[in-house]
Write a structure and sequence with these properties.
The protein is an alpha/beta fold. It contains 21 helices and 20 strands. The strands form 3 sheets. It has an 8-stranded mixed β-sheet. The chain has a 7-stranded mixed β-sheet with strand order 13-12-11-10-9-8-15, with helices on one face. The protein has a 5-stranded parallel β-sheet with strand order 18-17-16-19-20. The relative contact order is 0.09.
Length: 643
């Protein structure tokens, strides 16, 4: 298992009903294809050796014997393979016939799992041929010369992962076997199925698998019967699906007349991380009803050549399509406005103060505040926007700040910080020609002092503008822009801030407002604490100093959400940004910067103001991220150096 990934596959062979010898040859073709792709676990459909639609032929000894012969042939075929292969077949037992999944590896039967819930209504009549697992529980059967126990709940442990099996309608039970299996440790669920195709059923099935994989916090591999099944009354559309934590990773083209095969990687390390942090899941596992679960150990699965086949978005905080992105932006905006509305109502505060720089963050804070005032029916004139030109302020950002405040109908105050800062430099004996951290932070703290004092004047509160990405990097002046009385942007990553402002611009009726917002979006990100170029353009660009925010947001997501180590994040970043301008050296450089700053700047996050959480990643010390300010980054940086 490299980087925590297990490569899984779903294969749907082209079969003939009641012809196990033909079917096993087709399964062998899929196995060879899977082996060529480095698949470690391959699952085939329900009753794949015989066909699902044999009906009363299941009572014929010839079919049952031929199925066993076919299984022996398959065992011999896989004798030198590390891959785990799961096939479906009818298995004879003392009191009847069981619909089973047989797990093979290296030419041996590792285990047999029987279907738990047999559908027996409408087009389904499985109880006519098969016996429920409740009746054959703990039964032992002779199969291919070995005495093997048929189990209902079985966990197959490998050095790479643990997996369990359910079949077909098992998924649709009020409490599916997969729920018990997951609570007992199965990280991947395999479903051998033979669901017929009916109008609306495919979409329903997708929703069920997505929900179950999310509920189980695990992977789910589904292989459904296909074209070769009998069409006397039903059609089987050969559906193959692979999910992880509610997200689809791979799917085939259904309604195909040929054999189907899909594969991808399931991130077992991510699954384990999610389960560790989810106490509801662990508490449920303690009271699981699956106390009779059987555990079977298998050998190491070996994928000699690892190359990631699944895709990773370079922008994990940003949905892939515009409709979803607009919905995300509106939802985050609504969370922010509702959070601020509660704080204003609780404090009976009618006035707020915001520093407006003409940049993205202060723009988002401003539009959230105006939206909150509209929601509460308050007068926007009680929003006091303060622009505070300094040594690095450019005409572009100044003009945008003033014009935006006018367009939004708030009260505008302009207070230059130059004279105050020069006096401060004189007081502390600092040369204003030296543009160091003292020069920069003095300006940031002067601005914060002005905002706080105006808030005292108007009996109001200061609205913070800093975002999640800045908090992760510590790109804020301690007790300067780091501090406020309510921080509306505190859990919004920088890459998402831009899109929320863009969404807000699109829904504005005023052309002027839209154009200003678009120009703010296009303005380079900068604290503007260093004098501009002689041409008037911004000289101090944040991303030149601390690195591209899209890279840092990528690192941040996989550190906070998944707890991945630097080597895995580096690998994922190379994969996600493979078509971008970032080469390996650039990614390594900024990953090292991220790790160093993330640890060194924790002291700023240990005393953050209140603010609404909007997504699954947050850095609030009151619940989202609790970390000692003096934790060592040595292990992380050492791994970065070795990349």
């Amino acid at each position: 298992m490299k980087y925590g990934f297990v490569r899984v596959g779903a294969g749907i062979p082209e079969i003939r009903v009641a012809d196990p010898q033909y079917n096993v040859e087709e399964i062998e073709k899929l196995i060879l294809k899977a082996q060529g792709q480095g698949v470690e676990i391959l699952v085939t459909p329900e009753l794949s050796l015989t066909g699902y639609t044999c009906q009363d032929l299941f009572f014929q000894q010839t079919l049952l014997d031929e199925a066993e012969v076919a299984l022996m042939k398959l065992m011999d075929f896989t004798r030198s393979m590390d891959m785990i292969i799961v096939v479906g077949m009818p298995v004879k037992c003392n009191i009847g016939l069981a619909n089973c999944a047989v797990v093979l590896q290296k030419g041996k039967i590792q285990g047999i799992v029987a279907k738990t819930y047999l559908p027996n209504c409408n087009e389904c009549a499985e109880k006519r041929w098969f016996t429920s697992t409740h009746d054959i529980k703990d039964a032992k059967v002779w199969l291919c010369g070995d005495l093997i126990e048929i189990s209902q709940h079985t966990i197959f442990n490998t050095p790479s992962c643990s997996f369990g099996i359910e079949m077909g309608h098992d998924l649709l039970a009020p409490v599916p076997p997969s729920s018990h299996l997951a609570m007992m440790g199965a990280e991947i669920i395999l479903n051998l199925s033979a669901e017929s195709s009916l109008v609306g059923k495919d979409d329903f099935l997708r929703k069920q698998i997505a929900a179950q994989s999310a509920r189980c916090i695990g992977g789910y591999v589904y292989a459904g019967a296909g074209f070769g099944e009998s069409s006397t009354d039903l059609v089987f559309n050969a559906q193959a699906l692979i999910y992880e934590n509610g997200n689809i990773l791979a799917e085939n083209l259904p309604f195909c007349t040929e054999a189907q095969f899909i594969f991808t990687e399931i991130d077992v390390e991510h699954i384990r991380s999610e389960r560790r942090r989810n106490n509801v899941f662990s508490d449920s596992a303690k009271i699981s009803l699956a106390k009779d679960c059987v555990f079977i150990d298998t050998d190491m699965m070996v994928n000699h050549s690892f190359e990631l086949s699944r895709t990773y978005s370079p922008h994990p905080f940003i949905p892939d399509n515009k409709e979803a992105l607009d919905n995300r932006a509106e939802e985050v905006y609504n969370i922010q406005t509702l959070g601020l509305a509660k704080r204003l109502k609780h404090t009976n505060c009618k006035s707020v103060v915001i520093g407006i720089s003409g940049g993205l963050d202060s723009t988002l804070a401003l539009i959230v505040t105006t939206g909150t005032y509209d929601l509460l029916g308050l007068n926007r004139k009680n929003i006091i926007g303060v622009t505070m030109p300094g040594f690095g302020t450019t005409d572009r950002t100044y003009t945008n700040a003033i014009t935006l405040m006018k367009q939004l109908g708030i009260t505008i105050r302009e207070i230059s910080i130059k004279d105050a800062c020069l006096q401060h430099f004189k007081d502390i004996s600092h040369n204003p020609e030296i543009h160091d951290v003292t020069y920069e932070n003095s300006q940031a703290r002067e601005r914060t002092q002005i905002l706080m004092d105006i808030a005292n004047q108007v009996n109001g509160m200061v609205i913070g503008t800093g975002d999640l990405s800045e908090l992760a990097l510590g790109w804020a002046t301690y007790n300067g822009d780091h501090m406020s009385m309510y921080s509306v942007n505190g859990s919004v990553p920088k890459t998402l801030v831009r899109h929320i402002v863009a969404w807000y611009a699109e829904v504005q009726k005023s052309t002027t407002t839209r154009e200003i917002l678009k120009d703010i979006i296009d303005t380079p990100i900068s604290p503007e604490l260093i004098p501009a170029h002689e041409s008037g353009e911004i000289k101090q660009k944040t991303e030149d100093l601390v690195g591209p925010y899209e890279l840092h947001d990528f690192f941040l997501y996989y550190v906070l959400r998944c707890g991945f180590r630097p080597s895995k994040i580096y690998m994922l970043a190379r994969h996600a940004f493979s078509c971008s301008q970032y080469d390996d050296a650039t990614i390594k450089k900024w990953l090292s910067v991220f790790c160093r700053r993330f640890f060194n700047q924790q002291f700023k996050r240990s005393c953050l103001p209140d603010g609404p959480k909007v997504g699954t990643c947050g850095l609030s010390p009151r619940g989202d991220w609790q970390m000692p300010s003096d934790a060592s980054s040595a292990s992380w940086l050492k791994e970065c150096e070795s990349l």
